Every structure is written in C-alpha cells, then in structure tokens.
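Exercise 7b. Backbone tokens:
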C-alpha cells in the first residue's frame, strides 16, 4: 500500500517531511474558498494531517524552534519603533484589556474543571492549549513535578495537561481564525480606511501627492516654514522655492513672500490643507522643472547611513539635498528630521544636478550591497535573545518564569529595532530580508507544531473524554475571541487591524498573526501583536500554574 511506503520514507527523512508539509500547505493556503484564504497558516493544518497518519511523522523539535526564533526576532526588529510608539499612545489600555481577558479565561478554566469534573492538570492544559501557549504548558508540567500529588503515579498526572493541550491547541488556532473572519464580515471592516486613519503607524501604502503652490495668502509670509508646519499641524515635505528667477531648496528657516512658488509632498488631505492656507495651485509645473535641480530614487545601502536620523546626516548642509519621500517595501513615508533610514529604503532625493552623483554615492545606491545579510548583527541579536529567554525570573509564591525561545528574542529584537544601531553595528535588516526571514521561520514553526500535535489530537478526539475536552476548549477560545473583538472594537474603538494583531499576541500565535496580516494588508496586526505579546506570554505562564494551585 502507498501508506506502507510513504510513512517509512517520511519518517526516515524528516527534512523531506518538512518540505512536503510546507509545499502542500503553501499551495492550499492560496486557495480562496468563500472569500476565505488561510495563507501560510494552512501549513499548520497540513502538518496536523501528516502527523495524524503516524506518531512517528514529526518534524524534529530543533527545526521548529529555530523557525520560531527566526520569526519572532525578525518581527521584533521591524516592529521596534512602532511598538514603543504604540506603547506610548494606548499601550496601557491595550495590555490591560489583554490581562483582563486572560484572567477571565483562567477563571473559566477553573469553572469548567469544577463543572465537568476535569482534573486540575487537564484544566491547566485546556487553558494553555485553547490559548495556544506551549510555555504555559511547560510551566504547568514543572509545577506538577515540583508539587507531585500523593497516591497517583507522576507519569499519569503529567499526561493530563499534555492530552488536554493537544486537543485544545488546534481548535485554539482555527477558532480564532474563524472568529476574525466572522467579525470582519459581520462588521464590514474596511481595513484600508482604518489604516489611513491610523497614519504612519499602520504602515499602509498611502497615496502621496506632489504639488506646486503659488503664495497668495499673506498669513503664509514672513514666517519660518517650520513654524508654519507646527502651527498648522502639517506632516509635509517642502522641496523647492522659486523666488523670481532664483531657485533654492526649502529649509526649516525659509520665509515665503507673496508671489513665491513652493513644491510640497504629502497626503492629498495634508496638501489640500496647505494649499488652502498658502495660496493657489501654480500652473507653471515647477515640480516638473529639472533643468537646475533634479530628483531621483536612490537605494539606501551604506551601513554608515542606516540607523541614523535624517537630521544627523546634514544632507542640506553637505550636498544641498533633501529627501522628499521614502519607500520601505510597499510603504510610502513622509520623512522628517526624526526619521531613521533603514538598509533597503528607496528615497527620493532632490538636489542640484551636479550634486546628484555625490549624494547617490553617499547613500550607497547598490542593491547588491544589501543582498548579503549582516550575519554578525543578526546572529548576535538572536543569541542575546535566546540567553535572555533562559534567565530564570523568580516570582512571588516560589514560581519561576522563563521568557523562553519566543519571549526572549522578541523582547531583545524590539529594543534593538528601536535603537537601530549601536556604534558600528546596524541591527535593522532590509525590509525584503525581514519578510523572507519571517515567512521562512513561520513555515518551519507551523510545520513542526502541526506534525507533532496531529496524532495526539485525532487519537484523543476519537475517545469519549476527547469530545468533552474539545468542546470545553472551543468554548474557552470563543469566549476569549468575543471579549477581545467586541470590547476592543465596539467599546474602545481600536482599529480592527490592530485588534486582530492584539488577539494574535494574546494567543501568542504566529498562525493567527499571519492570517490577520493577510486580511488587513498592512503593518497594524504586527504592531498589535508585538505590543501585547510579552505581557500575554508572561501572564499565561503564571496563570497556568495558578490554575493548578487553585484546584489542588
């Protein structure tokens, strides 16, 4: 039979198993059924299917651990600046919502144990599985080992949370995906409109407009441009100023006079505001005049430039040049003095024609230079994260917390991503490299956990107690999704893209994050995920042990 040939072949060749799961999952993930497309999350469910064939079909643990570390580290680097910006804005509110929901879920697990007659270990495993957190399961097992019950074999008690976890975990993933899909259909979510309202935080591909304004309003004259921008709340870039026959770069201290012409770049709403305040649209097409000043796209590849604020580069003073817009992957950004350039950015440079070559050379303008990953900074950052994950953190009550292979690298990456560089070390990686690492790491992780959970899931589900655990886990997952989505969207008016990322962070679940990002098409889910993941991960590790303490 085909099965007699296939199972030994895949068992003896774990890498073949890995890439078979990845290929089939990737193909299925791009099929759209009823408007639903799972994306890379489908790899998890294909892994469950392969794992169900035999308990021997398991991707080795180091493989999926490597995938998890790569994924969270690359995600943390790219989310660092936005994470701290979001934390300053609504971070306390978002994390308080997550903590409240987790406490309620733990209470529900305790209630389910007492109502359904579940053992304490099963309740803790149900909590960890329905909220898809392996470190929480590990903390429960450690608690049982340190506090063994009398009269029962330790192996029997240790099996209880593992079985409950294996039943609840898959429904914890699929249930959350279905909850997000249902909510966005029910509430008719317009992700693009929400991203536009969220501004640069969303990382959406916003529309930019380039316009020349003729100054006809006296209120716009004799004041430094910087003062006007602060007073009017503009997020714009002014390029060139035409004063009679003289053409010059717009600088912070530039003052305008009636009849001057000035070019401006920004969103249509911001440009319209500037136009109404300053004057009228010029018909001379100054933005198209390249006889004296030229503009072009330049690729940032110089490590000495990356990780530095634009204001520190002194481009106007050194080269008489301005950067008027930045494209990072599919994202367009309006630059300011505080904007930090990253390797792989494409910037639009405006300068005198004779200076263009020097500016391009200074920024790098080489695709090949950034095609090679800086192995030193990447490996050093990951190593620091893994070391942090192994540090024991003592907690009240004799509990000990480890951030683990997900929490440690994520926290270190968030900090390094916000720092951007330390001396000669540039921590940030090019956008394209980050996306590739995230995708590759996620595939390894999902294929691994799917293949390792598949056999136990279907085997336990076929038993009588399995259906009870399945129903209890589904109820716990549905409750968690309802609280976060309803309270977050209806009560606190959190954008759905950010909220689905928060839900994925509460679940500490990359598969849900992948699905959420697939639906929104912007960076809001990644920001929401990173903003609550550390708190959610720590809280679940502690609560899993508290459930055992309450029920013992």
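Sequence design result:
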């Amino acid at each position: 039979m085909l099965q007699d040939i296939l199972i030994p072949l895949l068992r003896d060749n774990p890498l073949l198993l890995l890439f078979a799961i990845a290929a089939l999952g990737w193909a299925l993930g791009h099929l759209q059924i009823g408007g639903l497309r799972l994306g890379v999350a489908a790899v998890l469910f294909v892994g469950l299917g392969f794992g169900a064939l035999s308990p021997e079909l398991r991707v080795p643990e180091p493989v999926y651990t490597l995938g998890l570390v790569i994924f969270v580290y690359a995600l943390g680097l790219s989310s660092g600046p936005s994470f701290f910006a979001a934390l300053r804005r609504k971070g306390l509110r978002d994390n308080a919502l997550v903590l409240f929901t987790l406490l309620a879920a733990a209470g529900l697990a305790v209630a389910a144990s007492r109502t359904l007659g579940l053992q304490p270990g099963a309740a803790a495993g149900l909590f960890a599985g329905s909220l898809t957190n392996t470190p929480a399961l590990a903390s429960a097992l450690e608690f049982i080992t340190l506090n063994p019950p009398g009269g029962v074999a330790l192996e029997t008690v240790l099996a209880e949370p593992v079985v409950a976890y294996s039943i609840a975990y898959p429904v914890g993933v699929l249930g959350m995906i279905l909850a997000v899909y249902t909510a966005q259909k029910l509430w008719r979510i317009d992700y693009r409109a929400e991203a536009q309202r969220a501004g640069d935080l969303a990382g959406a591909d916003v529309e930019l407009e380039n316009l020349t304004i003729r100054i006809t309003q006296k209120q716009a004259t004799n004041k430094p441009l910087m003062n006007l921008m602060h007073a009017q709340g503009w997020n714009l870039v002014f390029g060139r100023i035409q004063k009679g026959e003289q053409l010059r770069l717009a600088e912070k201290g530039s003052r305008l006079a009636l009849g001057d012409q000035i070019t401006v770049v920004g969103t249509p709403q911001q440009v319209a505001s500037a136009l109404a305040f300053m004057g009228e649209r010029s018909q001379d097409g100054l933005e198209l005049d390249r006889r004296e000043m030229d503009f072009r796209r330049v690729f940032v590849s110089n490590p000495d430039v990356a990780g530095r604020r634009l204001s520190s580069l002194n481009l106007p003073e050194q080269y008489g040049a301005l950067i008027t817009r930045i494209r990072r992957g599919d994202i367009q950004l309006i630059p300011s003095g505080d904007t930090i350039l990253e390797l792989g950015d494409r910037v639009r440079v405006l300068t005198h024609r004779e200076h263009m070559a020097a500016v391009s050379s200074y920024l790098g303008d080489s695709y090949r230079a950034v095609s090679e990953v800086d192995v030193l900074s990447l490996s050093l950052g990951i190593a620091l994260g893994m070391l942090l994950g192994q540090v024991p953190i003592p907690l009240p009550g004799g509990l000990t917390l480890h951030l683990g292979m997900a929490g440690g690298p994520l926290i270190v990456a968030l900090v390094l991503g916000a720092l951007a560089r330390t001396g000669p070390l540039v921590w940030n990686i090019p956008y394209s490299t980050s996306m590739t690492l995230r995708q590759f790491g996620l595939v390894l992780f999902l294929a691994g956990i799917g293949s390792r959970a598949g056999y136990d899931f279907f085997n336990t589900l076929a038993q009588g107690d399995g259906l009870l655990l399945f129903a209890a886990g589904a109820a716990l997952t549905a409750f968690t999704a309802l609280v976060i989505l309803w309270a977050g969207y209806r009560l606190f008016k959190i954008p759905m893209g950010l909220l689905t990322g928060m839900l994925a962070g509460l679940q500490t679940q990359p598969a849900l994050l992948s699905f959420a990002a697939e639906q929104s098409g912007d960076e809001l889910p990644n920001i929401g995920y990173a903003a609550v993941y550390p708190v959610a991960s720590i809280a679940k590790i502690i609560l899993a042990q508290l459930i055992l303490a309450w029920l013992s």
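Instructor comment: The mean pLDDT is 83. The first strand starts at residue 209 and ends at 215.
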